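To assess whether the prediction recovers the assembly geometry, we first specified each molecular entity separately, as shown.
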Amino acid sequence: MKPKLKLDILLLPLIGILLCIGGWAAIAGKSTTREMVDDWGDKVTKTERHGLAKNLPSPKETWEASKPYIVEPFAKRGELDQGILRFAWLSLKLVAQGYLLALVIGTPIGFLLGLSKNFTKAFDPIIQILRPVSPLAWLPLGMVLFSGLKIADATGRVSFGTSDAAALFTIAICAMWPTVLNTAVGVRAVPQDYLNVAKVLKLSRTKTLFKILIPSALPYMFTGFRLSLGIAWLVIVAVEMLIGKPGVGGFLWQQYNANSFAHIILSILTIGITGFILDRAMSLVEGRFRTA
Amino acid sequence: MSAILELNGVSKSFSGTPVLSNINLTVAEGDFVSIIGYSGTGKSTLINLIAGLLKPDRGSAVFEGAPITGPGPERGIVFQNYSLLPWLTVMENVLLAVAQLFPDLTPSERRERAASYVDMVKLTPAAGKYPKELSGGMRQRVSVARTLAANPRVLLLDEPLSALDALTRATLQDEIADIWQKNRTTVVWITNDPDEALLVADRVVPLLPGRDGATLGEEIPVHIERPRDRRLVVQTPGFKELKLRIIQTLLDAKKDSAATVSRKLPAPDILPEDLGVKRNFSLFDRPSPRRRSQLAREEVNVEVV
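The predicted structure of the complete assembly is given in tokenized form:
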């Protein structure tokens, strides 16, 4: 059984990845260079691209164009010309702030939803309506809400402006919902037995909250936290594209405008891999709390 | 002896279905009463009424002269399913009750007190373990320790041992009876096992099913000397006679009770995610929902000649 298992978890994903790269190479454009004589009799070289998706760079071209960003992942050559991990780091910092905001706001709302039927009846419809709203729709509202906000640092440069506040607002409000809903489910799922123990011991409301409700709902809450992080990471790219902040998303949009298509693929892969690592790291934490 | 607990004409029904009707019970201080009945006759409802987790529809439940309005630590209850908090160790589960009931004690005094109750149920070696690491019998011991740690005036046990195997059950019956002999706390013990009722209680009250809800039958006093050695007691003609009387009473009542309708309902195929199982971290494997139809089935090879 052992060798078969190895094959399953290593070889098969590898085959899958190779197949995808093969498909990518097949549809990518190829460039051919011809030498020809033009109407004035001069010799010129002409490069033409052809293929299914003419402008899509092939895997090899992507690698060659991305090399400077990968080999020096932390280089800073300019505001929008930095190493790819430096960009990822900038994005992660913004995500972390917005995500924390989402947890701080979302968890208490989840508890209120889980504990009070009337609160649920009053606010559940609003939540259901706001939940599917795209980050692209929230960002302009954030810009309006925080317009004119300027917090300057010691040197007088604006360190936290309208667009920063709008970005945080957007990430927080989009990433909040899984935390809200999962916390509510977790609180509703607290076994009646545990609540009976609290009743018989006559625990106060605060004690019941901290000694019974929170520990019991924690596995559910962490599932919500993990899903929220995934959404926060999803939102960051859109936000950065819109406000032009340096980060993976900002880089992606800038490279599109610069017709540098290989870097778009680099950005997409970076976003995907970072998201994957975040998700796995969160499930690692989540698994620790699944000891009900 | 004065009555510590009194139920007068108590009735209870759930959404129109009568469960208990006209329950009258008087428990004196230091009494050891066992209530015996079939599963589903309302034994748990009865004990929840005494505990204050439920309110009677009619009649009154009086504890120490005052009507029972809600649950309280003076009526400690040991639940059938242990109801231990899984994120706390044995010691912490007991400490929770001690900290709540004796807020004036210093932390070290609380620990000492909790430790004495853990010791009383012989769990000192397992004090640092979590409930999931314990066997069913050990869990129920923790539950008993936690309830006793709250220093209750009445100890209510709701089929405390029915989830345990016969051997563990016997051991725990003896242990709880021992603890009772030392503390002389009033005990109301609910059970469905005539042997258990006769081995632990001073009097056995049958809960008899009826058309308008269950009601208490005539009580059967148990005059067997303590400490009761189960090996000797079960062989005595007195014990056998009492057991027969209990069984006869219960059987007679069943004959008169309403016929039940049984219906088969299909169970949903998808099972809830088992949060009790620690999920192993895996990089690429994503868990899929558990299905009833995919549960491991036992396979038996049969040779046909």
